Amino acid sequence: MGLKTTLDLDELTWGDLLAFSDIGRAAGVGDDEKVEQTWSQNSELEALAVDLPAAGLQRRPVISAEEGIDFAAVLAEVLLGEGDARAYLGKLTELRDRLLGVS
User: Which of 6, 31, 32, 53 has the most neighbouring CB atoms within 10 Å?
Assistant: First the structure.
């Protein structure tokens, strides 16, 4: 059994729209899947909805933009150092744990 999420278009912000898209993407909704549209009695578009597949409703790691930049910088240093990651083992372990949802 899946879950349906609905986006009300009244006072919609770009953040709301992007979050709706991110939820669908994270749940594994395909790019070609149609977005359900809800219309008012006045033939005005009121809401968008999508059925999220149950298999895709797993918890995904959340990494802030700051953490992402920090981790990308560490990976860049490792690559510039010809793959020698010994100086960055702590940060790489932290990244692995965050991606696996361990910490």
Answer: 53
